[in-house]
Amino acid sequence: MVDLHTDWLGLRLRSPLVVGASPLTRTVEDALRLSDAGAGAVVLASVFEEQIVAEQLGMHRFIDSHVDTDAEARSFLPDTDVVPIGPAPTLRRLQALRAALDIPVVASLNGITPGGWTDLARQLADAGADALELNLYEPPTTLQATSAEIETRQIDTVAAVVAAASGIPVTVKLSPFYAGLPAFAAHLAAAGAAGLVLFNRFYQPDIDLDTLDVDRRLTPSTSAELPLRLHALAVLHGHVGLQLGATGGVHTGLDAAKAILCGATTVQLVSALLDDGPAALARITRELTGWLDAHHYRSSHDACGATDLSNVADPTAWERLNYARILESWQPARTRR
Ligand SMILES: Cc1cc2nc3c(=O)[nH]c(=O)nc-3n(C[C@H](O)[C@H](O)[C@H](O)COP(=O)(O)O)c2cc1C
């Protein structure tokens, strides 16, 4: 029998499969169904820095300051009535979930500047969060801020959230767009982060060519998004003192197995569960257990990091060589067998 238990951020989870930040845990009933299907933990939808620092009037002022800069500018900005103001609903939901569930409940913050709003970390800890996930979602848009300045501010933000979090562990959810990801990860560890979650899926608005408006539909991920995560996990595992979680593109137990082999202690699921509900979690658990068993792993812990890059003497040279080999191996369709 394969043991799926895993230790994540000082928490003992019965499974590495975690429900990622999303509306999936909006109600206690939904969360209980996911727990019954085998979830190791749940992460709540994020509270945004903007919800805390901007009173409703301030939010309007921020948005209105941009609306005249371009004829279509308003359509690129969020509608103020879809951005909820204040953390009270999340604190209430957290308390209700904490009372109902016997698996860890992780609260999520989305913010990018150190400041008074980070006191929310303390409120979430006081309301019963077992850990915090801080999402550093920040698509750069100005010529003024250099990468170094952005990263320094983000590291300061992590330190501020860790300081406010009353001792509960903080894991940081990143985008893939850091030129020096390993060094940045090491700075986050020094700032007190306990883990990393890789990677954010950037909201990717398309343009509707008929209306010239932004097409804001959120499309679910596919397994094709996983390799980007696998690569980063394999690079980081064993090199930074951070526990690694995967998010993005996990739809099968085999996807989850790959993430674990590359070094993920936990594997978050959202699109798969939005598509198929708790049954998908039960299926992915079965498939993961089946794969581990068939490959003689007694536990997911034993498999964690088995294919990381820690045994490669010069990972950069190895990566460049592999890239060159992949390019060389391409053949025109008519010569492919
Ligand atoms: C409807 C929806 C809502 C989401 N809300 C949040 C959120 O509040 N905070 C967050 O960090 N990520 C949020 N995400 C991103 C997911 O947590 C996850 O990182 C992303 O969907 C990639 O995982 P997947 O391929 O399993 O969907 C959301 C995703 C979806 C689809």
From TrEMBL:
Record key words, sorted: Flavoprotein, FMN, Oxidoreductase, Pyrimidine biosynthesis
GO cellular component entries: cytoplasm
Cofactor: FMN
Domain Dihydroorotate dehydrogenase catalytic, residue spans: 100-289
Source superkingdom: Bacteria
Gene3D superfamilies for the chain: Aldolase class I (3.20.20.70)
Pathways involved: Pyrimidine metabolism; UMP biosynthesis via de novo pathway
GO molecular function terms listed in the Swiss-Prot or TrEMBL record: dihydroorotate dehydrogenase activity
Keyword Flavoprotein: yes
InterPro entries hit by this protein: Aldolase_TIM, DHO_dehydrogenase, Dihydroorotate_DH_1_2, Dihydroorotate_DH_cat
Pfam family of the protein (one): DHO_dh
Biological process annotations from GO: 'de novo' pyrimidine nucleobase biosynthetic process; 'de novo' UMP biosynthetic process
Keyword NADP attached: no
Entry protein name: Dihydroorotate dehydrogenase-like protein
Organism lineage string: Bacteria, Bacillati, Actinomycetota, Actinomycetes, Mycobacteriales
